[in-house]
């Protein structure tokens, strides 16, 4: 069973003062298995952020189905729901929107683990493992966002 299953996702936005709509996302389907990483890649305006916001339940899709584990997303089930809090997140494409310039990379990866109550030793291990998975050298964990490209 997929960890995340998105089927035929459609998102339209109404144009003010018109009966027309902007079709931001049109019949997007994908699934994500445990242990996999998913990156939404595309041109500016291609719907990447809109898909992410739909998956997180931050906006209600026009059509389609989104399931996280056995939970049907939409309605009252969003990333703010207690059973989903800390399990799903959106990483914005602009580093200035994603990273706090006042915190070193290690602290930024560590922060959500600390909020979830993970002990220090496990947090350190998980931060280093996450960095390694994405090809981030351990020495870079001590840098600030402005010091990387």
User: Sheet bearing the most strands, described?
Assistant: 4 strands, antiparallel
Order of helices and strands: EEHEEHHH
Q: Helicity range of the residues?
A: 25-40%
Within the largest sheet, what's the order of strands?
Answer: 2-1-3-4
* Name of the CATH homologous superfamily of the largest domain: P-loop containing nucleotide triphosphate hydrolases
Question: Total domains, how many?
Answer: 2
Give me the CATH fold name of the largest domain: Rossmann fold
Mean pLDDT: 85
Task: Note the beta-strand portion.
Answer: 15-25%
Explain how this protein is built.
By secondary structure, the protein is of the alpha+beta class. The chain has two domains: 4-88, 3-Layer(aba) Sandwich (Rossmann fold); 96-147, no CATH class. Helices cover 26% and strands 21% of the residues. The chain is built from four helices and four strands; from the N terminus they run ββαββααα. It has helices at residues 48-56, 95-98, 105-115, 120-133, and strands at 4-14, 21-32, 63-68, 71-72. The chain has a four-stranded antiparallel β-sheet, with helices on one face. The radius of gyration is 18 Å and the shape is globular. The model has no long low-confidence stretch (mean pLDDT 85).
């Amino acid at each position: 069973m997929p960890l995340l299953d998105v089927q035929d996702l459609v998102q339209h936005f109404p144009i003010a003062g018109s009966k027309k709509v902007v079709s931001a996302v049109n019949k997007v389907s994908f699934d994500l298995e445990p242990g996999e990483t998913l990156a939404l890649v595309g041109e500016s305006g291609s719907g990447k952020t809109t898909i992410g916001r739909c998956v997180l339940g931050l906006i209600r899709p026009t059509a389609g189905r989104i399931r996280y584990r056995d939970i049907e997303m939409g309605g009252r089930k969003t990333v703010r729901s207690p059973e989903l809090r800390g399990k799903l997140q959106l990483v914005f494409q602009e580093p200035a929107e994603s990273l706090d310039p006042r915190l070193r990379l290690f602290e930024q990866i560590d922060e959500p683990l600390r909020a979830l109550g993970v002990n220090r030793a496990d947090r350190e291990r998980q931060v280093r493992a996450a960095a390694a998975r994405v090809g981030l050298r351990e020495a870079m964990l001590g840098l600030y966002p402005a010091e990387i490209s």
